[in-house]
Amino acid sequence: MVVRVTDVVCPFCGTLCDDLECDISDDGKKILEIYNACAIGAEKFMHSQSDDRLVLPRMRQEDGTWKSISYEEAVEFTAQMLTNAVKPLMYGWSSTNCEAQSMGSKVGELCGAQMDNTATVCHGSTLIAIQDAGVPSCTLGEIKNRADFVIFWGCNPAHAHPRHMSRYSIFPRGFFTGKGHKGRTFVVVDPRHTDTASLTDYHLPVEQGRDYELLSALRVVFHGEGDRLPEVVAGIPKETIIEVGEKMKAARFGCIFFGMGVTQSISKNHNIDMAINVTRDLNEFSKWSIMPMRGHYNVTGSGEVWGWQYGYPFCIDLSRGYARYNPGESSSNDLIERGELDAVFVLGSDPGAHFPFSAVKKMNKLPCVCVDPHITPTTVVADLHVPVAFVGVEVGGCAYRMDSVPIETHKVVDPPEGVLTDEEFLEKVYERMKEIKGV
Amino acid sequence: MEYIVKNGFVVDPVLGADCEKMDIAVRDGKIVDDAGPNAKVIDASGMLVMAGGVDIHSHSAGPKVNVGRNFRPEDKGNHPEFTRPRSGVKKMEAGFSVPTAYSSGYIFSRMGYGFATEAAMPPLYAKHTHEEMRDTPIIDEAALPVFGNNWFVLDYLKNHEIDNTASYIAWLLRVTKGYGIKCVNPGGTEAWAWGMNCITPKDPVPFFDITPEEIIKGLIEANEYLKLPHSMHLHSNSLGEPGNYQITIDSLKCAEGIKPAGDFNRDQVLHHTHLQFHCYGGDSYSSKSFESRSREVMDYINSVDNITFDIGQITLDETTTMTADGPFEYHLSHMNHLKWVNKDVELETAAGVVPFIYNPNSFIGVAQWAIGLELGLLAKDPMKCYVTTDAPNAGPVHRYPRVIKWLMSSKARDDILDACKYGESVRSQCYISELSDRELTLMDIAKMTRAGSAKALGLSHMFGSLKPGMEGDVSVYPINPVEDLGDPDKIEYAFGNAKYFIKSGELIIDNGEFVSNGNKRTFWVSHPMQLTDQVERDISERFKKYYTVTRNNYGVKEHHYVPNPYVIEVGA
Fold this sequence. Notes:
The structure holds 2 protein chains of 2 kinds.
Chain A: E1 3-8, E2 20-24, E3 31-35, H1 39-47, E4 58-60, E5 66-68, H2 71-84, E6 88-92, H3 98-111, E7 114-117, H4 124-133, E8 134-138, H5 140-146, E9 149-153, H6 157-160, H7 164-169, E10 185-189, E11 202-204, H8 211-222, E12 232-233, E13 236-237, H9 238-250, E14 253-258, H10 260-263, H11 269-282, E15 287-292, H12 299-310, E16 316-317, E17 324-325, H13 332-337, E18 343-347, H14 351-354, H15 357-365, E19 368-371, H16 377-381, E20 384-386, E21 397-400, E22 406-409, H17 422-437
Parallel strand pairs in A: 6-7, 6-18, 9-10, 9-14, 10-11, 14-15, 18-19, 19-20
Antiparallel strand pairs in A: 1-2, 2-3, 4-5, 4-20, 7-16, 12-13, 16-17, 21-22
Helix pairs in contact in A: 2-17, 3-12, 3-17, 4-11, 8-9, 8-11
Chain B: E1 2-12, E2 17-27, E3 30-32, E4 40-43, E5 48-51, E6 53-58, H1 63-70, H2 74-77, H3 101-110, E7 113-121, H4 126-135, E8 140-145, H5 151-158, H6 162-176, E9 182-184, H7 188-192, H8 212-226, E10 232-235, H9 245-252, E11 270-272, E12 280-281, E13 291-292, H10 294-303, E14 307-310, E15 318-323, H11 326-336, E16 340-345, E17 349-357, H12 363-378, E18 385-386, H13 400-408, H14 410-419, H15 423-429, H16 442-456, E19 474-477, H17 488-496, E20 500-503, E21 506-510, E22 513-514, E23 522-526, H18 533-545, H19 558-561, E24 565-569
Parallel strand pairs in B: 1-4, 1-5, 6-7, 7-8, 8-23, 9-10, 10-11, 11-14, 14-18, 23-24
Antiparallel strand pairs in B: 1-2, 2-3, 5-19, 12-13, 15-17, 16-17, 19-20, 20-21, 21-22
């Protein structure tokens, strides 16, 4: 008999949808069907069921081939690597639960690691801008229930956060938004004509890298000086900027969602600083919020956990026994590029796919352990690949949505026999490290 | 393990001990009459011995606290003396005004505190709050969910449906593992979702057809209907606004005629928090207008027996303000033009975070400082008045010892007023100079930091005294109460540097060194009242239509978030 499991949480993106339903076989081992998920989320669940799934750690041999080893051997290699390293990097943490993140902190403290998460290459600039300017924001339900004006700036939720628009931001009907999509003015700012842009009231095809200028121009409009703008700013005609700016002022409740189009283009955190100030200005006239479109399902959680444990959301240097923070110095790519590291531990992310190639080449020369259920570009450069259970599919645990709302993911099916969870593997490494260090 | 704390000067209002030389024995986590022969002896000769401190209102865990940490790297970097490395059993520490969770446990312990109340938990973020409390070592903690702008509460109280309100509250306390009813800027925070506010208790809440006064009264009545351990815990409208004292008195009057119910031995039905921010006269912050109205507010409080309050003392530091009073933080960001965080939370509440400097060289900073102390000095019954800094809003939590110093020493107060530029203006526009002959005693302080606050929280059967049977929380402070009280700096040092601290029967600080991370507990209240049919229907509908998490994913499970719970069963 098929068993239907409800309230399943999707461990793919920062939207962290928690209304999925799964059909599982009556022995509780096989996912048969997944409902309500987007295509990517559904694939994540289904991929956990693939026949070629790794169930044992594998060690790279001198000739480049892989050899399966036991978890005990994997724990020993990892514990020795981290214990013997002078300056190890422990990177990732965005695709795992807060329980594993906390256990990772224990390991990091014991070996004085450099702790960093994927924000370092996505919304790290947002975190820095927030440290400069703050952030007027809200939960996604506030958008659903109140927003009559929504902007997506430098992001493409139709592809990257596929249920965002239908669940929270554009289409749903909420308490004060009974007309749903029809009651919302919808703007996309993006040089590309994306699938998201094709749905809008206004698409502003800003010139690549000119977001700061366009944001500044909007502030000029808010301050009643729109007439003094040049005829075209950042590729957008003055009349359009004034028209959109005046509508923003007249909105009842608005929100700017922004993505890596602004955080990782030229100007980086300064773009976000200006976007935050646009939002501050708008609060003089009505109610506005701004929110980063966080990518991994628990990158936000990683920043939260480190926030309460160390006081900083990313780029943390624990080498002196207390936490130091200096992005640019204590950030992963800077550490790698400067050749300061002597070991790399990766869990819950894929730097092999997302770091600059020059950095990946240097990682390849360092002792490197990658903990990941999948085979990825990072496992290709790792010495040891430790497969683990899928969080949110085979083990539960807390995760934080893009608006920092904590949601507990659930275990839907058992992992393959013998496969450890992230937390279990880290705990074994921690215990072994304590033995080695005699503490 | 068994301990006997020998030869200390015990100050304990419940025991009636006022600097009495006594031995205190602790066994199996409790205070006992006599220690056995194998008890470890702690020599407290010439030192002050008190029960563990009980903090009734601070912000040390939860989403807005973590925003304060993450968006202020300068709160660590500018205060290297508050960044302490790992050492022995002790984990690393960081943060001046918003310490990390680890730091928080150590700071409270150094001050000899064993219990802290996180004073505002957004229910949707309850998991986060509990995760932080779990990682806060040593001290026991409880969190108060916010109700004053909750859509369910607004709807029920609009029609004065106390039973439905109570049913909803009992459910929410269960699912969020909360301790009691917090109400922040009633109605005003919901109005803030549209960029508006409720200034007085009579201002209607947009759309909801209810006033703050009805919310306050209704929540008090629901609290007594449920007979909860703690009373309704109020942060009233117009916090921090010049001229707000009458609004405060009007809000306090909502408790008139209501008597405490239940088995938890508290006398109050309303606890007003950080009262200092609510006692202002004048119509602007300028030195020509602003004045203290603490006496007027205290005249009212001293005349009734069903209200308690905490001070919310300004400590003249740079700090990080954070409150569920969203509109107030927005106004504050306009005053200092520093960075501003706001977070509106669907169906429930909002919060704001803004760094702030209470400048001793400004008139207003020192006037606020004076008003807080006036409240402590004017309180006729110290059992109704508690030392807090509304940490970190009016000052960091580690400044409690400094507040105690100011309350105990007229000289220490004069030193501040003499040193600051606007001292004379403050003396003339506040009541502080009229109170120069008032100096609180150690007995008063024991009431304001332990016996009184424990009683107001409904925990007088566990905390606040060294009576046999109480929790084994014992603080030994390095000060001789017979010889050293004339030196205010010795008072401050002693209350911030417990020589020995025993928490739940376990030695935590031994001769000034941390020797254990304790076994912290999270307190929450389980009430047997089930959902009424109406509330069941409403919860079901609202989770389907308006929340962005499902009802089944909303609650806090114990395993990870509350690994060591202490459940107070009401009516059990």
